[in-house]
Amino acid sequence: MIFVDASFFIAALNKKDEWHEDAGELLPLIKKEEKLTSHLILSESVTLTGGLFGGKKGVILFNYILDNHEVVYPDKDLSFRAMETFLKYDGTLSFADSVSVEIMHDWEIDKIVSFDSDFDKVDGITRIH
């Protein structure tokens, strides 16, 4: 199983994104994997897509993610654990990324497809990019 970050979804959709070609090369590789993401990543991805390309494209991405990814919805406990991770990295890892890290720990996932180099500082996680 692999965790999918918002940066991947945005790069895959946005031809002007610096990582667009790389995302296209990764897509066939991760199609074979079971994919997991979080509600925060879903929200961020749909919001950015809607802002860049309009609401209809945001809905298409929303449906794609729900149809092809397990989505974890953060609860209070997860949020508090993510805040501990956020503090551990002194705010240099965003709260949403901290939630992603905690979900990855919970699901025993060690790979994330992301163009966000902040994940490189997290021990036990390999960023696929």
3D architecture notes:
It is a single chain. The chain has 129 residues and is an alpha/beta fold. It has one domain (2-128): Rossmann fold (3-Layer(aba) Sandwich), CATH 3.40.50. The protein has six helices and five strands; from the N terminus they run βααβααβααββ. Strands 3-2-1-4-5 form a five-stranded parallel beta sheet, with helices on both faces. Helix 1 packs across helix 2 (20-31) and helix 3 packs antiparallel against helix 4 (55-68). It is globular, with a radius of gyration of 14 Å. The two termini are 16 Å apart.
Summary, kept brief:
By secondary structure, the protein is of the alpha/beta class.
Features:
single chain; 129 residues; alpha/beta; Rossmann fold; 6 helices; 5 strands
C-alpha-based Rg, rounded:
14 Å
Order of helices and strands: EHHEHHEHHEE
CATH topology: Rossmann fold
> In terms of structural class, how would the helical and strand content be classed?
alpha/beta
Average pLDDT score: 96
Specify the overall morphology. globular
Instruction: Tell me the fraction of residues in β-strands, as a range.
Output: 5-15%
The helix content is 55-70%
